[in-house]
Structure formats: structure tokens, C-alpha cells
Amino acid sequence: MRVIVSAGGTGGHIYPALAIIDKIKELEPDSTFLYIGTHNRMENEIVPAKGIPFESIEVYGFNRKHLLKNIKMITCLFKAKKRCRKLIQEFKPDIVIGVGGYVTVPVLLVAHRLKIKTFLHEQNSVAGKANLMLAKYVDLIGVSMKSAMNEFPHDKTIFTGNPCSEGAIKVKPADKKSLGLTSYKKLVLIVMGSLGASEVNKVVVGMLKKVKDLDYEFLFVTGKGDYDSIIKESFPSNVKVVAYLDPLTAIMKKTDLIVTRAGASTLSEIIALNIPAILIPSPYVPNNHQLKNALDLVHANGAILIEEKDLTSDILLDNIDESINDKTKLHDMSNNLRQLYVKDSATVIYNHIKKLMGDNE
């Protein structure tokens, strides 16, 4: 299979794209790939490091605050479409896959014009502007969240789940002792993304100073940006602080309760691993989509929601302590998350792609 994949801007788009690539490689080892991304975002480093052929295009999203900057956006879009046409005609793909971000717009539009089969994937409950614009041009759309089904044409939209979830299942569980944790004690994992997380981290630090007499443990993943300042604080012995863990899913498999943001990839792993969660959505994302992502889990009684505007150290600790000490509640939350899980999501996507390509045969 010859496959062009495009996704960019954030890990929430890039890692699902890589999960799809990995699944195709697994099932069809002779496949060849070309990844088209932006020239100045994180895919520019992540994808080549994976040994995947990468081509960059200069393209920008619509700027609502500085309308004059959109002149450059439009100019770059025309140039990007011309470059994409050249790349696609030279590579001759069997299918072109878009997994989110404005970089996908010229790639999929050109593929559509060249009558090449196209697949689009949306990870969030609220569709991104690029995906909404592309919806009428692509052949098939997959969504991670059932609530996103209504965002797209019903006749070509399928519920696939998030392809990252399949990879989470395969990760080997971490050894808690290697992180200075006690093997038999319950574990609360606290991990926040980098976007707007510093204020939340301050609340977490205040909360963790109050947990000395509790009989369970905390692992606080601060993020690299805040680690140097946070590690200078004094914490009780049942609190461990690290900057970063890779893969995070390894310790998630040993976690009894997770406190985190509500990015699509994170939620896909929480659902796949059935981890009861306290979600603090980032309010700094487009269309407040993390809140709406979180509500999918909350409405299924698989997670607790605390909005950042309501967050205090006491509120956070009360929710953690009540949940971690209620065995029935944790069990029910875990079971409810199982109802949201799409088994073998990346394989589901692969099978639909193969069926779509078969339309040409």
C-alpha cells in the first residue's frame, strides 16, 4: 500500500496519525509512506525521528485577530496546493489520510481533485475547523467520540475510536518500585499538559502539601517547563515528583485514579485502560473542545469533571480522597469506561481504509 498521511500542530493529531501508520506497517510491511506536515510545528521533528519520509509545506491557519495576516495565509495556501499536487503526483498514493490540523487542507483538497481516495479522522468531540471544511470533499470520516458523529455527514461518517488506544493496550506495565512507589498502595497519577498547565500545577502543589497522613501515594508528572521550580518544594513522603515519563501509559496501567486534562489522545488511553479519572479540561483550546471531550466520559459516569475556574486545592483533594477510598465507585467508573472503548481502533480504521480502496477495483 502507498499511503500519504497528513496531520500537524499538536500531539493530539500527530500521534493518532503515527498509530495508523504503525498499524498499516504491521499488517502490510511492504507499504510505503509519505508524511506531509508543516515546516515549523512539532511534526517537523517527531515524524523524521520515526524514520518516516517527511515533506513540509508552509501553511497557516486563519487568523481572526489580525485579518491582514490572512493575506499571507491565502498566498501560502495556493503555493502549498501547488507543492502538494507535485508531491502526490510523484508519490502516486493509493490513499491519502488526514488526521487533523490546518496542514491537511491543501493535501486533501488536492487529493480529492486528483480523484484519489481520502480518509479523514477527528479525535475530539467538537470537530476542528479544518476537518469541518474538508468533510464534503473526503470519501470517509472516522471519529473518536460518538458525540462527534453529528458534526459530519451521516452517510460517510463512522465511529472508529482513537487509534492511540490500541497502542496503549500493548504497553508493558511499569514497575512502581523503580519510581520509588510502594507496590501495594493505591496510586493517584497527576499529569497535566503544557498548555495553560502552570496555574493548575500551582493548585496541585498546594494540595500535595496536605496529603501527609493519607495511606495512598501520588505521582505528580509536572511537565518539563515547571519541574525545576516544583522540585524545590517540600512534599510528604507519599508524593513522588517527576518531569516526564515515556511511555506514560506504562504507569497508567498501575494507576487507580488519574487527574489530568482532557485532550483526545489522553482520554483514548484512559478509556482503553479503564482508569477512573478526574478531568480538568484546558480552557485555552479552540471551541473549548476539551470540556466537551470530558463530558463524554462524565455523562457515561466514567469520570469526574472539575473546571479550572472552580479548582482549588481543597476541592481537588476532596474529590481525590472521596473517590480513591470508595472501592465501589472506582469499580463502577472503570466498568462504565469499558462501554466507551472501541476494541482495536487502529485495526478498525485499517479495515475501513482497505474497503474504501477496494471501490477502485
**How many helices does DSSP assign?**
14
Our Rg estimate from Cα atoms comes to: 21 Å
Q: Count the strands?
A: 13
What's the shape? Answer: globular
Q: Largest sheet at a glance? A: 7 strands, parallel
Mean model confidence by pLDDT: 92
Following the backbone from N to C, one meets helices and strands in this order, namely EHEHEHEHEHEEHEHEHEHEHEHEHHH
CATH class of the largest domain: Alpha Beta
Low-confidence stretches: none
How much of the sequence is in beta strands? 15-25%
- The class by helix and strand makeup works out as alpha/beta
CATH architecture of the largest domain: 3-Layer(aba) Sandwich
Share in helix: 40-55%
Q: What is the CATH topology of the largest domain?
A: Rossmann fold
Strand order of the largest sheet: 3-2-1-4-5-6-7
